[in-house]
Amino acid sequence: SYFLFATTAAQLDYLRFPLADLEKPQVRGVAAQLGLKLAAKPDSQDICFVPSGDYRTLIDRLRPQGREPGEIVHLDGRVLGMHGGITDFTIGQRRGLNVALGEPLFVVRLEPQGRRVIVGPREALLTSALMLEEVNWLGDAPDFAAAAVAGQSVRARVRSTRQPSPARLALMDEGPAVVFDTGEEGVAPGQACVLYDPVDPDRVLGGGFIASTRSLV
Asked: Which domain, by its residues, includes 193?
C-alpha cells in the first residue's frame, strides 16, 4: 500500500487485485502449476533500469554537480571538514563522515545549492512535522486541506520498511502539514509519506512527497 498511495479514487473504482489474498509462496506455486518460467525467478529489490544496483553511477551521470566538493558543517555553524560530493551522503548516515568531534554525529540535512552536508547529534534527526506536495487524498474529508483544518488523526509512514507513526494533520503557515505525536527519525525531503486510518490500519487515506520538514532541535 505504501507504493500505491498515488492511486486515485477514480482508478480505485475499477481496479482489481486478484492476488490480494495470496502469500508470495502461494503465488509462486500457482505460477509453477501453470508452467510459467518466472515461478522460480529470484526476488528483485533493484530499480528495473539499474539492474546492477550501482545507483551512485546513475546519480553521478544525471546530477554531476553532486560530485563537487563542499563543506561538512555542524548545526552550530562550525566547519568540521570537507567532502567529495553530497551524493555520498544520506539523511541519518553516521559512518563515513571522516570527521571527529568526540561524539557521534549524523547527517541531519543536505544543502545541494551550497554543497554543504549538515551534521549533528542523533536527536537532531527527529522531525516534528513535515509538509507534503503532490498529495493524493482518499479520505472521507473533501480534501487534504479540509482534513488538516479538522486536525484529523492519522498514522504516517515515511519509509516502506518502517511502521506508521501516530500523527495528526494540521494547517500551518506553509499549508497543510503532518505533525507527529513524537519525533520521527530520518525523514528526508523527496521521500513519500503515506497516511493510514488510525482505527483501520489497512486503509490508506492518501499521501504525498515530503517537501520540507521541521526538526525538534
From this structure: 125-215
In tens, the pLDDT along 7-35 reads: 999 999 999 988 888 999 999 999 999 99
Q: Is residue 133 located within the same domain as residue 189?
A: yes
Provide the b/e sequence for 42-52 (b: ≥16 CB within 10 Å). Answer: eeeeeeeeeee
Cell numbers for 139: 479520505
**Eight-class DSSP state of 77:** S
What torsion, rounded to 10 degrees, do the Cα atoms 19, 25, 28, 29 define?
A: -100
Residue range 148-173: mean pLDDT, rounded: 94
- Is the pLDDT reported for residue 216 higher than 80? no
Are residues 118 and 73 in contact, defined by beta-carbon separation less than 8 angstroms? yes
Say whether both 162 and 108 belong to one domain: no
Is 0.70 topped by the overall pTM?
yes
**Beta partners for residue 143, in sequence order:** none
The number of domains in the chain is: 2
CA distance 4 to 155: 16
197 in a structural domain: yes
Phi/psi at 25 (nearest 5 deg)?
A: -60, -35
| CATH number of the structural domain spanning residue 114 | 2.30.30.280
